[in-house]
TrEMBL record:
InterPro entries: Glyco_trans_20. Belongs to the glycosyltransferase 20 family. GO terms for cellular component: cytosol. GO terms for molecular function: alpha,alpha-trehalose-phosphate synthase (UDP-forming) activity; trehalose-phosphatase activity. It comes from Pseudodesulfovibrio alkaliphilus. GO terms for biological process: trehalose biosynthetic process. Transmembrane segments: none annotated. Coiled coil: none annotated. It comes from the Bacteria. This is Trehalose-6-phosphate synthase.
Length: 490
């Protein structure tokens, strides 16, 4: 970061700590998920500020006071944006998760285009922008995260507040034919063009965005090559880039090397009688392809009966949006599928599918990564998918295999050494599982070693530095193309 940038300010829907009511008392719980996993180590090392919602809409709760201790320990400031229950319902559950989430994941039939959602989305975005305006200075670099807050730069400018702003979209950006179904498509694209830098996970997402620009704003002119290009809007220029998010590689690798994690991994293998372990780890969401994955396991056992009794599929599903009917229905569907597969194939001493519906602490999850012979990461559509990278980082013996959906953003980076599959192709996934089951140790080590080297080089610090370098650099020559960036943190 340049010396004239005093602070890095992160703005996201949720703070990295959330308030939860437990036994009648409000408690502070560290957040989970890709965004927190990615940015917590960065702000821990660099200092700065994080602005977001506390997770409660109760007006009687002193969110700032409760979060003060967390802020002190984290080493950076937290500022809350208070939201009412109606605002959470319309902006978060409504517009963000019933419109943008399914639309941007190519599942537009799940969208509910309610105009009231759009109005609430704008109201809440303005509320966030007011807090950003009050708490930041012109010297700060304001980094906005994700689809909940796409109007921040537009509203800051409407207030006459000058800030350097960057926006990063953690989910995919859809192609024009899908994006054009959004009733507020032009206004949303316009809002995104008000940022100084707009970042996406992959080059394909960036191409989809510029394709939408050409459709909706034909006057826009794209120039440049490499990871970041310029868009001339006539009166102003913005940068648009691909910045694949990553993990703190050393943190996961070091955790997997700890004696207690290795012992727990051995215990997992022992409990499954040292059979080959296929592992799935996901937040419970309809984009993750968990039902399709379980059907692939059923196909595997039907097509390759020699694997009966030799493999176990372990699916970890982290609870998510449990108050939403669609997610409760998904949970029921998964549980029924697990029951049917186990009912068809189990015999005394062997149950093929082990399903865990709960959150796992990091060290326990690392033990599962370490124990697993194969990670089955098959989302129907995903911005990146950090589970694929976490699994490789924890595979310190380099004897695992990664089967990865071609529709995960991670596939663009890892395709040469992961086994890519179409998650809708049940027989194709079963064939991939059967094939990697028979890979010899040398083949597994060759692929996993290369995967780990790539993730080690292109780690979380590389991601942050590449984005900030693009956002603050004076010209495009100040940073290299994506394939030349190999910054590492020891």
């Amino acid at each position: 970061m340049e010396s004239n940038t005093r602070r890095l300010v992160v703005v996201s829907n949720r703070l990295p700590a959330a308030l939860a009511l437990e036994d009648g008392r409000w408690q502070v719980r560290a957040g989970a998920g890709g965004l927190v996993s990615a940015l917590a180590p960065v702000l821990r090392d660099r200092g700065g500020m994080w602005i977001g919602w506390s997770g409660t809409s109760d007006p009687e709760v002193d969110a700032a006071g409760l979060l003060a201790d967390f802020s002190s320990e984290a080493g950076y400031d937290l500022y809350t944006v208070p939201l009412t229950a109606d605002e959470v319902a319309g902006y978060y559950f409504g517009f963000s998760n019933e419109i943008i989430w399914p639309l941007f994941h190519d599942l537009q039939t799940r969208c509910r285009f309610d105009p009231d959602y759009w109005r609430m989305y704008l109201d809440v975005n303005f509320k966030f922008a007011e807090v950003v305006a009050r708490k930041t200075t012109p010297d700060d670099y304001v980094w906005i995260h994700d689809y909940h807050l796409m109007h921040q730069a537009l509203f800051l400018k409407s207030m006459g507040v000058k800030r350097r702003t960057g926006f990063f979209l953690h989910i995919p950006f859809p192609p024009p034919d899908i994006f054009m179904k959004l009733p507020w498509r032009w206004k949303l694209i316009q809002a995104l063009t008000e940022f100084d830098l707009v970042g996406f996970q992959t080059l394909q997402d960036r191409r989809n965005f510029t394709g939408c620009l050409h459709r909706l704003m034909p006057e826009a002119r794209v120039s440049g090559r490499g990871a970041v290009v310029s868009v001339d809007m006539g009166s102003r220029t913005l940068r648009v880039g691909a910045f694949p998010i990553s993990i703190d590689f050393n943190q996961f690798a070091d955790m997997a090397r700890r004696r207690e994690v290795a012992d727990r991994a051995f215990g997992i293998k022992e409990a499954l009688r040292h059979r080959k372990i296929i592992l799935g780890v996901d937040r419970l969401d309809y984009t993750k392809g968990i039902p399709e994955r379980i059907r692939s396991i059923k196909t595997l056992l039907r097509r390759y009966p020699d694997l009966k009794g030799q493999v176990n599929f372990v699916q970890i599903a982290v609870p998510s949006r449990e108050e939403v009917d669609e997610y409760r229905e998904l949970r029921t569907e998964i549980e029924q599928l697990v029951g049917r597969v186990n009912g068809e194939f189990s015999f005394p001493g062997w149950v093929p599918v082990h399903y865990h519906y709960r959150s796992f602490p990091p060290d326990e999850l690392a033990a599962y990564y370490l124990a697993a012979d194969t990670a089955l990461v098959t989302p129907l559509r995903d911005g990146m998918n950090l589970v694929a990278k976490e699994y490789c980082a924890c595979n310190v013996d380099e004897d695992g295999a990664l089967i990865l959906s071609e529709f995960a953003g991670a596939a663009a980076q890892l395709q040469k050494n992961a086994y890519l599959v179409n998650p809708y192709d049940l027989e194709g996934v079963a064939k991939a599982l059967h094939r990697v089951f028979h890979w010899d140790k040398e083949e597994r080590r060759r692929h996993m070693s290369r995967l780990r080297d790539q993730i080690r080089r292109n780690n979380i610090y590389w991601w942050v530095d590449s984005f900030l370098q693009a956002g603050i650099a004076k010209n495009l020559g100040d940073f290299p193309a994506a394939d030349a960036m190999t910054y590492t943190r020891g």
